[in-house]
Structure formats: structure tokens, C-alpha cells
Write a structure and sequence with these properties.
Chain A: Keywords: Cell membrane, Membrane, Transmembrane, Transmembrane helix. The complex is a heterodimer. Chain A has helices at 2-8, 10-35, 43-59, 64-86, 93-115, 142-145, 151-169, 171-181, 183-188, 193-219, 231-241, 246-270, 276-295. Chain A is mostly helical. The radius of gyration of chain B is 22 Å and the shape is globular. Chain B has 15 helices and 2 strands. Chain B has a single domain, classed as ABC transporter involved in vitamin B12 uptake, BtuC (Orthogonal Bundle). The chains are: A mainly alpha, B mainly alpha.
Chain lengths: 313, 356
């Protein structure tokens, strides 16, 4: 049957992992912020900023990894703004996050337009190339599906393990999880609630920005207006779906990537019967369904959205 | 060591002055990107002011731009009052516009005093339903409304696109994906001859005053405020939180839907996917600048509209990217957030640590 053929093709899984990569960065970033108790709705703008800043750095002559670093710094910068507003000042995390998204998006667009005032077609860079690892890349199936991805996909996979290890195997991770559940207990340990929360938001935002950078420096080779197109919001939904666990985040992003790659292929099979928009809606509808499925048992970090002030219990 | 002390009773100067100061500060901050873009700063500010207020035409353009912003600002204000985080005004606006097109392009016809209310009701209903869905998911199943309303924006835009290429497509549009024009009797008439500012502005002003009275003077308004301030306490005192939330959703979504009606039947005359340059999101900024007060929304919508129209005309004149307007609007949101903090807390610089 045709569906089985689609699912068994290495090129299908190659596409699924490619689509999942920016989501892996985004969900990991959102998860780190939320585990520390801060919802970061700046994610959509931070994706845009990472995409623009990383691309721009490479276009101005930096190396590809230099661009990745610039993207992470840009993400960290906007994360710091969100962190200052929501942690020591304790302002609404929803509104501050939307504000950071508006700021990061408009600043990225303004910078791009100012640097390139009259280009009709977006200039291109030479992006990350598919890896060619001896032996591994030549393996049947998995060689094409996994080991011929770019270095940024490998970075995303490594980050899943690093994030999981830090969160569950180190004292720092214990403190981050505690600060999102019961900040006063962290304070009683003599640790800084503000420091942990701000640090987590900055690092998480830097990770989100890498998701944006992947789009302009690996999946494509140019920056377009509106190219993020809700990917950040999808990550917020997937974070709930993943119950704030890095391993489940990987699975959720891969499932999502597989479904998206599948609907693109389905479109070529049955596209004549449905308008293309039906397929384009799928990722968003799928995200909402994912939220509904886990809503009943979603185990939100207990202090998520709750500001904490020093000297007050 | 910096400490924050709560203020017991911030005076009127703080309460009303801080949003104004935040807005002015955001405009002044725009000097930095202007300077980095190599623009003459003073000229740029001058051009922004004349662009928004320099002539009857430019003021009419500004008021035209303010009309949907008042309505989406009210939509955000009433929802945020009840802590219903409706970030979906953009999608509700498009659904409202589409409903207006469905009933307002010739299916039914009548005099203006029938047709205008008909398309308004259709648009408000469509917008309201768009928000009642996510609200029910929130109250019944605990699904976070922030993410669902955000994602619905994208779904609605694709849906509108699909309809404009299908059932609602204008056969006379030479292949452009746009709807048939709204019939003359349903068009919101212009308020001034040869100007674009239209009846939608009056509708928006009436909506703002009506909402102000509703929130302040009715039992339902009181219940909305009570739920927003402390849902648990409101529930304990016998207020049905679910019912109140659905009322808020109907109001908020309905107002955003009206913004779509006003744009499609007042400003544009037909529906296309570029109907709104983000009025739904800008409405959040408008509401926050107004400190969620319905009357304040009018003033802050005028401010945001002046920024958009002024910066647009300035950027055309001296070749600076018009994204500067979005940048100023975003910065004023963050400034007013910080300003709101400073009205509630005093900042104290403690020397005790260094002394002792």
C-alpha cells in the first residue's frame, strides 16, 4: 500500500527529522524556561531574531558556527529582557512574552530592511551542508535518514541529552526544577531564586534562537519575512505535550515532524481533492489536538506563572 | 541593594502620567534605531508628526487606522480584565470580516439601517464563537487558551485564504484571491467627504463608552472584575466563573469581530488576506497602554494609530524601514509594563549592606 511505502522511505524520515530539528531546539528552550517557573511567549520573536541574526552574521562574513553563536547571543539578549520583567519585577509573563515577541520581531525586520534596503530577492549564504560521516552516512536507511543531516541537527540531538542530564543528574538541574515548583524551598537552601530563574530564561531563550538559526542557516539559505510562521507557538504546545521532559520533547518533535512530512507527501497523492490550505492548517490543528489530549493529566510546574518576591512567602 | 516597596495608594498623577510617559519614552527610544539607520533624527520626528496630524487628510487616515485598534484594544482589555488571555483577536477579526462578507455581498439586501446592523451582528457573532470555543476548552478541560487562540490565528488566516480561492472568490477579480465587494447598502459611510474615516469610528467610540458603563455599573461587569481579581474568591461568593468567562469571551471575540466588519465594510470594501496588518496583536498593546480601561483604550488607540500613520509617512519620505512603527509600538508595551510596576512599587536603594 502507498502509505506504507511512504513511511518506509528513508527520504521520509530524513524530512521528518529535518522538520523536527527547529522544534527540538524550541521545545527544549521553552521547557528550560518553564521548568524554572517562567512561561516564555517571547519564543516566536526569539525564533525570528535567531534566524535573522545568525543569517546576518554569516552574510557579513562570519563563519557558520560564528553565526550560530550570534543567534544564541541574540536569543539570550531577548531572554534577559523577558527575565528582568518577569522575575525580579514579577510582571505578567503573558504580556511580557507577547511584548518580547513584538520587540524581537520588529527589531529583526527593521535591522534586515535597514541593512538591505532594496533587495527584491533575499540574498543567500552557503548554509550547513549534509554531513558525510565515513561508514555511518553510508549505512542503509539510517545513513540517509539520520547521519546525512546537517551538524545543527546533531547539535539538537546532543542538546536533548545534555538538557536531560543537567535537569535530572546535576544539583543545578535539581535547583532549576525546584525553583519552578517551590521557589521558597530553594531560597531556604540559600540559593538565589532570581539568579536561577533569570539564568534559565536566558539559556532557554538562547536555545530557542538556535531553532530560528537552523531555518536560515541549514534548512534554507536566506531570511524571509514571516518565515517563522507560528513555529514558536507550536513549540509552546509541544512543551505541554512533552510534560516538560527532554526525552518526550524529542519524541513529540519527531512525531510532529513525521506527521508534517507525511501530510506533504499525502498532498502530492490526494492534493487534487482538497485545497492546499487544508494541509497547511494541519500542523496548527495537530498542536491544538496535542494540547487537548494531554490537558487532563498535564502536570504543570507548580510555580509556573507565579511571581516570587524576596522576603515574602 | 535595591528593594521594591509597595505603594499603598498611587496618586492620579502616577496612575495617568505613567502610561503617557511610557509612550513618550518609547518614541524617544526610537532615536537609537533612527540614528543607527543614519536618518536625520529631528527631521524624522517632524515628519512623523505632520504625517499623522499635518492635514485633514492625514488626520482622517490616522482616525481610520485608530478605528480597528479601538475595537481590538477593547477586546483585549475586557478579556485581560477577567484574566482570559485572548491572543486570538487577529483570527477573530478575520472571522468577523468573513461573516460580514457572507451576508453583505448580495445574499440579502435592504436599506442601510437594516443591512449595517445585520453585518455587524453577523461579524460579532462569528468573532464571539471563535473565542467561546477555546474558552470552553479552558474551563471544561483545562486547555491553555493562550496557545489555542494563538494557533487559531494561523488556522483562520488559512481558512480565509481557502474561502477566497473557493466559495467566496469574486469571479470578477481577475484571479486575485479576494471576495466580492460589500453591497452599497451595507457599506459604512464616510464621515467626511472624500475622506476614508467612516462610521466604524463612531461604532468603536460607542462600543468603548458602552463597555465602560457595562464594566463599572452592571452586575455582570462587577462579576467580570471579581473573577479577574480573584477567581477562587469570586467562586466562593457564588459567581459562576464558567458563565462569566463565556460572557467575557463573547464580548471580547465579538468586539474583535466588529473590528473585522469595520475594516471590510468601512475601509476596504472587500475581503482579502491582507485586511489586517496585525491589528489583533496591536490591540494588546493598546489595551495595556490604557491600563485595561475602556475609555483609555480610545486614547491609546489614537496614539498607536498616530505612530503607525506618522512612521509610515516618515519612512516613505526619508527611506527608513516602516518596521520602525512596529518597533515603537513594541517598545511602548514594554515601557508601560515597567511603568505599571513603578506605579505599584517604590524603588529604594538600601545602603545597609555596605554600611554594616
Amino acid at each position: 500500500m502507498e502509505i506504507i511505502d511512504i513511511l518506509l522511505a528513508a527520504s521520509f524520515w530524513e524530512a521528518a527529522i529535518r522538520i523536527a530539528t527547529p522544534l527540538i531546539f524550541g521545545v527544549l528552550g521553552a521547557l528550560v524556561c518553564e521548568r524554572a517557573g517562567v512561561l516564555n511567549l517571547g519564543i516566536e520573536g526569539i525564533f525570528t531574531a535567531g534566524a535573522m541574526a545568525g543569517w546576518m552574521a554569516v552574510w557579513l562574513g562570519a563563519g557558520l558556527w560564528g553565526g550560530v553563536l550570534v543567534a544564541a547571543l541574540a536569543g539570550g539578549f531577548f531572554g534577559l529582557i523577558h527575565a528582568i520583567l518577569t522575575v525580579p519585577l514579577g510582571l505578567s509573563q503573558h504580556v511580557s512574552g507577547i511584548g518580547v515577541t513584538l520587540l524581537a520581531t520588529s527589531l529583526s525586520y527593521f535591522t534586515y530592511r535597514t541593512a538591505l534596503p532594496d533587495v527584491s530577492s533575499p540574498p543567500r549564504i552557503i548554509p550547513f551542508q549534509p554531513l558525510d560521516i565515513p561508514i555511518l552516512s553510508d549505512l542503509p536507511f539510517i545513513g540517509q535518514a539520520l547521519f546525512s543531516q546537517t551538524a545543527m541537527t546533531m547539535l539538537a540531538l546532543v542538546l536533548v541529552f545534555v538538557t536531560g542530564w543537567v535537569l535530572y543528574r546535576t544539583p543545578l538541574g535539581l535547583a532549576i526544577r525546584a525553583v519552578g515548583d517551590n521557589p521558597s524551598s530553594v531560597e531556604a537552601q540559600g540559593l538565589s531564586v532570581y539568579g536561577l530563574r533569570i539564568g534559565a530564561v536566558v539559556v532557554g531563550s538562547a536555545m530557542m534562537a538556535l531553532g530560528g538559526a537552523f531555518l536560515t542557516m541549514s534548512a534554507f539559505d536566506a531570511f524571509f519575512f514571516g518565515m517563522i510562521n507560528g513555529r514558536g507557538w507550536v513549540c509552546i504546545a509541544l512543551t505541554v505535550f512533552a510534560s516538560w521532559r527532554p526525552g518526550k520533547a524529542l519524541i513529540g518533535a519527531l512525531l510532529f515532524g513525521a506527521f508534517d512530512a507525511f501530510q506533504v507527501r499525502l498532498q502530492t497523492e490526494v492534493g487534487a481533492f482538497f485545497p492546499s490550505q487544508v494541509f497547511l492548517m494541519m500542523p496548527y490543528i495537530l498542536s491544538i489536538i496535542a494540547l487537548i489530549v494531554v490537558a487532563r493529566k498535564a502536570d504543570y510546574p507548580k510555580a509556573l506563572l507565579v511571581p516570587w518576591f524576596k522576603g515574602q512567602r | 541593594m535595591i528593594r521594591f516597596e509597595p505603594r499603598s495608594n498611587p496618586g492620579p498623577i502616577l496612575v495617568y502620567g505613567v502610561p503617557v510617559f511610557a509612550a513618550v519614552f518609547a518614541i524617544l527610544l526610537a532615536a537609537i534605531p533612527l540614528a543607527l539607520a543614519g536618518a536625520p533624527i529631528m527631521d524624522a520626528y517632524g515628519l512623523m508628526i505632520t504625517g499623522a496630524f499635518g492635514s485633514v487628510f492625514s488626520t482622517s487616515e490616522m482616525l481610520t487606522r485608530a478605528t480597528p485598534l479601538i475595537l481590538t484594544g477593547l477586546a483585549a482589555a475586557i478579556a485581560f480584565r477577567a484574566k482570559l488571555w485572548n491572543i486570538g483577536a487577529e483570527g477573530q477579526l478575520y472571522m468577523g470580516a468573513m461573516a460580514a462578507v457572507v451576508v453583505g455581498t448580495g445574499v440579502i439586501d435592504g436599506p442601510s439601517w437594516v443591512m449595517i446592523p445585520v453585518i455587524m451582528i453577523a461579524g460579532a457573532l462569528a468573532g464571539a464563537l471563535m473565542l467561546i470555543g477555546p474558552t470552553l476548552l479552558k474551563t471544561r478541560m483545562g486547555v491553555d487558551e493562550v496557545v489555542t487562540t494563538l494557533l487559531l490565528n494561523f488556522i483562520v488566516l488559512l481558512f480565509v485564504q481557502m474561502m477566497l480561492e473557493g466559495a467566496l472568490k469574486d469571479p470578477m477579480s481577475m484571479g486575485w484571491p479576494q471576495s466580492e465587494p460589500i453591497i452599497d447598502s451595507a457599506i459604512l459611510p464616510p464621515l467626511l467627504e472624500r475622506m476614508r474615516v467612516h462610521l466604524g469610528l463612531i461604532i468603536a467610540l460607542v462600543a468603548a463608552s458602552g463597555l465602560a458603563v457595562f464594566v463599572k455599573r452592571t452586575v455582570w461587569g462587577f462579576e467580570i472584575r471579581a473573577v479577574g481579581e480573584n477567581a477562587a474568591a469570586a467562586k466562593f461568593s457564588g459567581i459562576s466563573v464558567t458563565k462569566t468567562m463565556i460572557l467575557v469571551a463573547a464580548l471580547s471575540g465579538g468586539l474583535a469581530g466588529l473590528a473585522g466588519v469595520s475594516e471590510v465594510a468601512g475601509t476596504r470594501g472587500y475581503l482579502a488576506t491582507d485586511l489586517s496588518p496585525g491589528y489583533g496583536y496591536a490591540g494588546i498593546v493598546v489595551a495595556m497602554l490604557a491600563r485595561l480601561s475602556p475609555v483609555g483604550v480610545i486614547i491609546s488607540a489614537l496614539f498607536v494609530a498616530s505612530v503607525f500613520v506618522g512612521a509610515d509617512s516618515m519612512s516613505r519620505a526619508i527611506g527608513v524601514s516602516s518596521y520602525l512603527a512596529d518597533l515603537i509600538v513594541a517598545m511602548s508595551l514594554l515601557c508601560v509594563l515597567i511603568g505599571g510596576f513603578l506605579t505599584r512599587f517604590k524603588v529604594r536603594f538600601d545602603r545597609r549592606k555596605t554600611a554594616g
